[in-house]
Specification:
10-stranded mixed sheet, Spore Coat Polysaccharide Biosynthesis Protein SpsA, Chain A, globular, single chain
Length: 323
Amino acid sequence: MPQPETSARASAAGPAVSVVIPAYNAESCVGRAIRSVLAQTHPVREVIVVDDGSKDATAGVAQGFSAPVRYVHQPNAGVSAARNHGIREANGDWVAFLDADDEWLPEKLGRQMELLTAKPDLRWCGCRPAYVRAGEPTPAEIPASLHDVLRESAAISFFDSVRRGLVFQTSGVLVRRAVLEEAGGFDEALRVNEDRDLWWRIAFRYPSVGYCPQVSYHFVLDQAGSLTKQVHDRTSHVRALCRHLRNADSAGVEISSAFRPYARTLALDYLVRAAAREIAIAADAYAELLADFPLRLHERMLLGVVRLLPRFVATRVARRLSL
């Protein structure tokens, strides 16, 4: 299989960036993901493809690449376990993630490393995606309230920016490996939103994050075989949110005041979606959520209305209100 020679030759002497690609039944797309890493204008030390127990030809595609690509296999354990496996295998000081069904644009790593070199106090960095459906990319919107902030400084408050709507998808995040280890890696008990859970733990320690506002990768929405699955029961996610709230409160006023408004928005999102019968939450976790985030009158009225709607209408309303 032909490979971009410039990136492969430069990787041995380039900056210590390890790229982790989790893959499950990804024979149709993992080669594209790998080639997008090898085509980076900024070289990588290694590309670690973690095969999460695929039953198709994923292994053959990944093993068709030579260094700096490394193939690792594990029994099927989910995307969080696959990413954590990749982190343990990584030799670089920095770790970047790329889902097998996504792809980077050539300047992605170069932009991020340029930003991090200019701001050495930063420990992690995100970048802007374009969402791809039926082959057509649509750039994610930069919230209007952040246009001036990103023009003046590439370092922003993580919780303030995500509360305003800035996107931090896994395929766009670059983190120091030591920070990932310090934060504990991805929570393998979570089947969705496992990336968001980790970003919170990192942001409690390092609330400032870099962000490149240029479109730097493609997030593919209609690719079969993605490791990220929709899960109906969100009990574990609700308990995690409440646990994070307590951790934020114990981390000090600055972290707590930044996290609470964002967490409250998420709590209401869970409650609305539960009222719409789109997700399920165990009774004790539901009660814990209400105790941590007491509802205002208009919020109680909203939930009451959603419960009375036919399920298909309630689901559409919940999704319009969802983060």
